[in-house]
Fold these 3 entries.
Entry 1:
Amino acid sequence: MKVYGCFCVNETLEFLQGGHLLVPERFHTIALQDIPVFNADNRPTAYRFVTLIDVMYENKTRLLCSAQGDPAALFESIMTQEQARDRQWAQELIVDDNLGFTKDRVISRLTEMQSEEYARAHAEKHAPEFLAALRQNAQHGSVPTLPRKACSPISISPLV
């Protein structure tokens, strides 16, 4: 298993469109750049992002990312039909029951993935040396860090 994978979010999510969900199984830490706020123009991207986060969460994959907002802001324009009845229609609004019901789970998972508990679960599965650092630094009230390693973009191609 490779330690780090760095991806542009558009490349990664287009790659997932083909059903290739093994990326989180190949890397225990994934860095994504430029996660957009989801709207009517990028609805398919939102679906693929949800799938990616679900797979990463199940594999206890660590996510490092840059995004255009916090987890709730990324899904602000997505709502169920029931939620949309109470709002004025806007062009960028996505009324989609599947995404509307799923967004709460994904927001919760993204929030949990930032927690110390998730970091501990990730370390237990993938990086025992980080688990030791978590324990040691918890006693001193500081945040542990892993040694810096080069993280360069890689091209995504179908996994065999």
Note: The longest strand covers residues 27-35.
Entry 2:
Amino acid sequence: MASVLAWAITTAIVISILVRRRQLKWRPLASIHAIFRHWGEVLSISIPAALSNITTPIANGVLTALVASHGAAAVAAFGVGNRLESLSLLVCLALSMTLPPLISQNYGAGQITRVKKAYSSVIRFALCWQLGLYLVFILIADPVSNWFTSDPDVAYWIKIWILIVPVGFGFQATTFLSASTFNALHQPLKALWISLIRLFLLYLLGVAWKLCRWVRGDVCCAGFGQCINGYAGLVLGEASFTEFNAARVDTPI
């Protein structure tokens, strides 16, 4: 109920700002045919984008189940790692929200060079930013692990997670930035396929599941799996964008 009220109040405030400050005008309803046509155009992008966004929590849920088979300490460490992951990716997540309008505006105006420059600049920034955060994590691994728990077993696995997993955060950031870019370029299916291949084929089935069966210490195995899956996402995103550049026509949409 609290979530419903929070989102309802937020929506009301946003609409109020759009109407009062941005002069949003309410037009009379068009014909049913026009309404469904407009809805179809929006849904053709929003449905694949939504499916792409829900792949991450689904994959994390499956991975948590794999981690749970190795006891409470592994689950606790993995949970702490997920919180640290959310915080460390916050800046790049904000970029993924602000990049699509820039990409769409320039692509619609036929400014393909600006699209390529914006994408390349954001990818370079994400890699450098996450690398810097990883170096910070290395320096504070001991105190951070002790902040979260007094259990030496859990603290040990938290430290292992900090030393391994954040290496792949830069690659992971480039993945969802690439997905946002393809959504802005009206190619949401490419974004969806990047997420599906990265998370399910390469991460869960190809890496984490095998490692979890062969090696005890699930958090460590999941960490290596996440690094590999992040790099795979970077490769997929770059390859898809290169393919787009080779096939695109320098004309407005």
Note: The two ends are 42 Å apart (CA to CA).
Entry 3:
Amino acid sequence: MGCSSFIGGRWNFMIKRRSRTEVKALAQYICMSPHKARRIIDQIRGRSYRQTLMILDLMPYRAAYHIFKLVYSAGANARHNKGLSEVESFISKAEVNGGAIVKKFKPRARGRSYPIKRPTCHITIVVNTRYILLNKLYQSNLFNRNKFGL
């Protein structure tokens, strides 16, 4: 994702870079209401990787299965692509966005039709490691500042 601005007669492109320990998994066009998926995502945001898998495994909702697969995929991406440990991993970002709505018409009595709307959603899970994140905060001197930033 990049941003652009017009400075001094030229376009200045700023690139937002993700941390090297961040691993992302994305599921698109899941046939489910975004509201129902957000109900599950709010329960797992900020938790550790293993605790998230246990919570999702025991949840009785249909959305939990899709999110479980996505969190497991993000953990596998972290292990395989970046060589990160699952023990130190946690869910740093989890979001649900609305997707396309599939619209169909069902025939009803007396020649009428009734619209059927099937909402879809896009789910994004970002896994990060606690150890490296805390180390960066310590190096940026955030722990040593007082309440007023002096």
Note: The chain has four helices and five strands.
